[in-house]
Amino acid sequence: MTKLFKNLKPYKLSIVILLAVLVVQAFGDISIPSYMQKLIDTGIQNKGIEHILPSKVTADEYSEAQIFMTDDEKEIWASSYKKMGDTYTLKVKDEKKLEKLDNKLLKPIVLSYQLGHMTVKQFKNTVKEQLTSRAETEALADRIDDMSVSEIAALMNADIKSFRAKDQNGKMHTYVDMRPMIQARIASGHMDKSTISKPKEEMDKTLSSVGDRTLKSMGIAYATNAAKSAGVNIDKVQKSYLWNTAFKMMFVTLLMIAAAVIASYISSKIGAKIGMTLRKEVFEKVMSFSNAEMDSFQTSSLITRATNDVQQVQMTLTIMLRMVLYAPVLAVWGIFKVVQTGAHMSYVIALGVLAVVILVVILMIIALPKFRIMQELVDSLNSVSRSILTGISVIRAFGRESFAEKRFDKANNELKSTQLFTNRVMTFMQPLLMLLMNFLGVAIVWVASHRIDTGDMQVGSMTAFLTYSMMIVMSFMILTVMSILIPRAGIAASRIDEVIMSESSVLDSANAIEINESTGRLEFDNVSFRYANAEEDVISDISFTAEPGETTAIIGSTGAGKSTIVNLIPRFFDVTAGSIKLDGVDIRDISMKSLRKQIGFVPQKGVLFSGTIDSNIRFGNEDATPEEVRKAAEIAQALEFIEEKEDKFESNIAQGGSNVSGGQKQRLSIARAIAKNPKIMVFDDSFSALDMKTDAKLRRALTKYEKDATKIIVAQRVGTIMDAEQIIVLDDGKIVGKGTHRELLKTCEVYRQIAASQLSKSELEVE
User: Is the pTM of this model over 0.85?
Assistant: First the structure.
């Protein structure tokens, strides 16, 4: 997993910026439910009034509101208002101070509100209780139920107000305001503190059974009515509050959208850069590999690692930066806001989160082991596909299409079966998670409905709590889902890292020298070589010197080690014993770049790149002039067929040179080496694809135009090397003969047998 995350190290600053942007987005996400709660609870239900102290009250209301207040509370009440004409205006504007005043004065305000909003039935019961306490008026108690409010007021000789108003459910009722009567009785001395305390205690008992939210809404209802009575336009206040809140929601939404866009851009850019960097590092590392490393990593596997695996890492890191950083911020902030709602239903969220985690862990345990297998099967399928496509002509020639199809189907079906298994397992995730989310929503509504019924919660609070709960569960859902994607990407990152961290067995020494010029004198001094993990040497005790201006030929039976020798010259492999020297300097002490500049290498199999004939010949020397390109093609005997083409040197070459013949491909490969104008020319059985006539003409041209270069030719045909100044005969990895053609016919039995198999008796005798 660390191999996945280490790719993020170069982007620390970008990640910090991204985190800041995600915090802004989370702020938007978290704020929207709060604003919705305010719209419902304050804007709609409470008419835009947020606090229990009215913004303006009449003189009567100012006095009546203090009936149930203690001396300290009266002092606080008086200090909060300023008299302006016939009304009193609230002078406290600070939100925190207003919240403190709400807490301190809530109960006496609500008691006053209750006393000023008695139903007719409550009013008559209160009057009867007071009458029955006076023996001379007990006879009137039975008549109270049949009397009107005005009749009762006349009977009691009291100023009692009645009015029509809507309750919290919108129904019209007749209410009685008993506060003027209570005030009059207090002023006349008929009621004192002890007398007031009794109804206060009874009302306290009633209010204690009411939830905090209901109590607060009653206080706000008082503030609304009191302000309206003092001439405040409540409709205007409500509309102003709704519009202000709506504009805030709109601003926060736009801010959230902008943050989301920026976060997506940053995470995508980081992911794309990581993908680009990984592909570059893999490519550069593969380019530095010796043949030994290329053999240990299959080409199909390297292609998969540079494409599919890099894409997997890039996609996962992009999602991770966008979601995994965001989810904890949203979850922590959501939990804080849930606590702020005071809903006391956190256990419901905890159960939901626990269920999500358990579900995803179970799915992860089942599916995760299959992800590594799936990546390996992708390698296998690529290997089979590449093998079949490369050898398609052979498959068709032998009529083995059905065999190739079966081979492909086997690899394809193995990958399909694994993918189906993982997909089927993961298919259960989304519906099960959605089911859990819906169950959680139902549970929250069910629990909240009971709390709303008891007055401990308001509808807006429930809406906000439900939204926050979904955010929290969704955050944990994202984290748990990413816990599946991240290990899968971790596997891909490990496979990429395996390539990047692999060290080539052929490296420049610490004190490697640069050479700009050389004579081309090449000396093999008791050279031996064996492949990695092999038990025996492929070649052993190879010693010879290739002189500038001369041709050194190497011949031998198949598997004798001819190609191995020439592959050691440009250091495709390093010798395991002995040394190879260029102008007396061990080639291991020369930088590979400058060493290979001195060498023009033509491989056994002609390799061309997609482009043009000109671009392929220039491949070894981009600065070659058109005349030099033409001359190289002429020496390689390629000019004739090039001139026949309509576009000549600009003629298109398909990938791999599939649109030219084998001989033409080989001649262009030779021309490419010649155009480089090297000091050492290595031909690894490069003339075998040429006819005898072209072979002879090409060798004569090389002798004429490349007379100063050291030429090393690996050949199967004796006719190709007969004129070489030195012929090395190999058998079973050892030199069994060395000399000219004539000398070897006399001294080397192996060479004599090879020559006898290719030349006529008369040719041998002539020789």
Answer: no
